[in-house]
Amino acid sequence: MATPLSHTPSSSLTTIAVVGLGTMGTGITEVLAKAGREVVGIDISEAAAAKAVATLEAATARAVERGRLTEQERADVLARVRTSTDLRAAADADLVIEVAPESYEIKHQIFRALDDIVRPETILATGTNALSVTRLAADSARPERVLGLHFFNPAPAMKLVEIVSSVLTAPTAVTAVTNLALDLGKEPVAVGDRPGFVADGLLFGYLNQAAAMYEAKYASREDIDAAMRLGCGLPMGPLALLDLIGVDTARTVLEAMYAESHDRLHAPAPILKQLSEAGLTGRKSGRGFYTYEAPGSATVVRDALTPLDGAALTPGREVRSVGVAGSGTMASGIAEVFAKAGYQVVLAARSEEKAQTAKARIGKSLSRSVDKGRMTAEAAAQTLDRITAAGSYESFADVDLAVEAVAEDLEIKQQLFATLDKVCKPGAVLATTTSSLPVVACARATSRPQDVIGMHFFNPAPAMKLVEVVRTVLTAEDVHATVREVCGRIKKHAVDCGDRAGFIVNALLFPYLNNAIKMVQEHYASLDDIDAAMKLGGGYPMGPFELLDVVGLDVSLAIEKVLHREFRDPGLAPAPLLEHLVAAGCLGRKTGRGFREYARR
Hints:
Elements: E1 15-19, H1 23-34, E2 38-42, H2 46-65, H3 71-79, E3 81-84, E4 95-98, H4 104-115, E5 123-126, H5 133-138, E6 146-151, E7 160-165, H6 171-183, E8 187-192, H7 199-215, H8 221-232, H9 238-245, H10 247-261, H11 270-277, E9 291-292, E10 300-301, E11 321-325, H12 329-340, E12 344-348, H13 352-371, H14 377-385, E13 387-390, E14 401-404, H15 410-423, E15 429-432, H16 439-443, E16 452-457, E17 466-471, H17 477-489, E18 493-498, H18 505-521, H19 527-538, H20 544-551, H21 553-567, H22 576-583
Parallel strand pairs: 1-2, 1-4, 2-3, 4-5, 5-6, 7-8, 11-12, 11-14, 12-13, 14-15, 15-16, 17-18
Antiparallel strand pairs: 6-7, 9-10, 16-17
Helix pairs in contact: 1-2, 2-3, 7-9, 7-10, 7-18, 7-19, 10-11, 12-13, 13-14, 18-21
Pfam family, one: 3HCDH
GO molecular function: 3-hydroxybutyryl-CoA dehydrogenase activity; NAD+ binding
Protein name: 3-hydroxyacyl-CoA dehydrogenase NAD-binding domain-containing protein
C-alpha cells in the first residue's frame, strides 16, 4: 500500500494546496510560499480567499519594511500563491493540507471529494487539533496517505508542528511531511492519534480547570490569569487564552477529548457551553470571559466584572516590623524581600547558628545584586543591617507581622503557630507560606484564628512577583487588608483565593504536570517531544519534565496527593510512574536523577 509514496521526499512536495483560508490556513499559506512552495489556496468563500490574499500582501509588506524580505522576494512570494473556490484546483498538488472548521461532516466531504481529484500518490493532511485522524483516514480511498499536520497559531511565528500518524499511515508519508516541516524551519514532533495530541491535550485540560475554577467563584478572572502568568511565567493567563482561542473551539476540543478519555478533567466546564451558546466566544465576538473594544480586538475594556481601581478596603493594621520563621531558602528569600522594602526584620530559626547561616545567605544574594548593578553596595549594607538573626521565636515579641516558612508539615506548622500565639503581641498578623496545607488548620492551633492568613510566596521569593493571599472563613477583614497593603509595599502582585488545596497556581499546574507524566507512562510521546511541544506550542518557559525535575518529584507527588485527597477526582490521582520514581529515590536535580539524569556537582 505504501509503494506509491516511496518516491515522495519533501523536495518533491513542491505544489501544496491549502483547503480553508481562515486565520490558520492563511498563515500556513504564508509559511509555504516564503519557503519557495507553489501554493493553491482554496476556500468556498470568495471573500475568504480575497481576505487571505490581502493578509498575505500586508504581512509581506511588513516583512519588507523590517528588512526581512526584499521587494523582489516579496513579489516572488506573492507570485507563488493563487486562490480558488473550486476544490478541483488541488488536482496537481503533491500535498493537500485541510484546515476547514472542526467538523467531521465537513472534513469527510472534503476528503471524499479529494479522492476523486488528486493523484494516487498525493498526501492528504488534516490540520485538526480535536478530531480523529484515523476516522478521517478510514473513509478515504487511500488511508495510507492520510495523516495529521497540526500547525499552531500564528503559523508564521510558532515553531511547533505535530505530525500525527494513524495505524493506517504509511511511514513514507510521515517522512515526507516531516522533512517538509524541517524545510519550513519548523520543529516537527511525531505523535499518535488521540484528541488534542500532545500540546493541546495538555493545554486544554488546564484551560478547562481554570474555567471551572472561575465558574465556582473561587477567584476572579483577573487573579486567575495573573497567578498563572506571574507564578508560572506563562505568556497569557488561561481565561485570556480561552478568549483568544475561541470559547467554542475550546469546548469542541474538550468534548472530543472527553469522548475518548472519560476523564472528568476533560468534561467541558458548563460555563464554556453557556458562553458558546450565548455567542460570547471570546475576542472574535468581542466578548467571552472578558469584554473587548470590538469583535476581533485584543483590547480589554471595563465591564461589570472589572474590579474597581483602588477599591476602598477595610483599613489595615500598621506593620513596621516583620518576623520570618525558618532558615531555608524560602525563609531567607522572604526576609530579604521585606528588608529591601524598608521593614525591620527578625529572622528566627531553631538555633542561632541556623539563623546566622540564613542571614549569610541573604548577604550573598545582596552581593550578587550589587555585582549585577541592581543595587548599590550602600543599599545592600543597609538592607542587611535591617535583619536581626535570632535563635528563638521569643524574639517575635514585638513584630507586627509574623511569617512562617518552615517545613511543609502540618504538625510542625501547628506547633509553630501555637508558639507564635504565645510570644506574639495581641493584634499581630500571623501568616503561613504553605503551598498545599489548610491555612485554617494552622489558625485553629492559636487562640486568635481571626489573625491568621496565608501568604504563599513563590521561589525564589526575591525574583517572583506573585503572592497568593489565602483567607480562611475565620480571617478578619482588617487582616486581609493589612496583607494586601504589605504586598504593595514589598512590590508583589497579590491575588486573592480561598483556603483550599493548591490555591490557584498549584491547583492548575500540578494536574497538567500529572497528565504529562501519564502521556509518557502510556508510551504516547517521549519526554523530549512533550517538553518541546509545550515550550514551542504553549509558550511555557520550561517543559513539564524540566519543571518536575527542578521542583522535585517528591514535592510534586506530595502536592498531587493533597489535591487528590481534597477534590477526590480520579483524574487527579498521582501517575504511578511518579510514585515509582520517588520510591526509587529519583527526586530530580537535587539527587542527580529524576525524569532525566544530571551531572553531579
